Amino acid sequence: MVRDPFEEAETPDLAALLDALSDPDCRELISAIDSPMTAAELSDVCDIPQSTTYRKLDQLSEATLLEELTEIRSDGRHTTRYAIAFENVDVGLDDSRSFTVEITRPTRTADERLARMWSEVQKEL
Predict the structure, then answer these.
(1) How many angstroms separate the most distant Cα atoms in the chain?
(2) Among 8, 15, 36, 90, whose Cα sits 20 to 30 Å from the Cα of 106?
(3) If one looks up domain 14-124 in CATH, what number appears?
(4) Which residues of the chain form beta strands (DSSP E)?
(5) Exposure b/e, 76-113, CB count within 10 A at least 16 = b
(6) Per-residue pLDDT tens over the stretch 15-72
């Protein structure tokens, strides 16, 4: 099952988050996404080899910075599109001097929540 960064419990590992944000290719991919896009589209727009694009998209998804959306097609050939899953990332220190991460997510509409649930159900069939 694909990770859903919008779930309350989804707080990424600090190292994974910082690694993704420090990677120039990851930052370029994030900057290129203005609406959900496929890996092939992102590879073309960013001029990054497709194999590298897939690795970087996995890295960004694991860091919960991207949302993976499954586009269900009637011909059975489903497509994954990637969308930005954050508005703001704050890294700070708590009272015990441990690092904390807080990610502000965009608000999902009822239609978006329903589409996500339907996408998950379709993958199980």
Answers:
(1) 55
(2) 15
(3) 1.10.10.10
(4) 66-71, 79-84, 88-93, 99-104
(5) eeeeebbbbbbeebeeeeeeeeeeebebebeeeeeeee
(6) 999 999 999 999 999 999 999 999 999 999 999 999 999 999 999 999 999 999 887 7
- For residue 68, which of 28, 37, 114, 106 has the smallest C-alpha distance? 37
Count CB atoms within 10 A of the CB of residue 125. 5
The 10s digit of each residue's pLDDT in 85-102 is 999 999 999 999 999 888
What does the alpha-carbon distance between residue 33 and residue 24 come to, in Å, rounded to a whole number?
A: 15
CB 10 within 8 A of CB 16: no
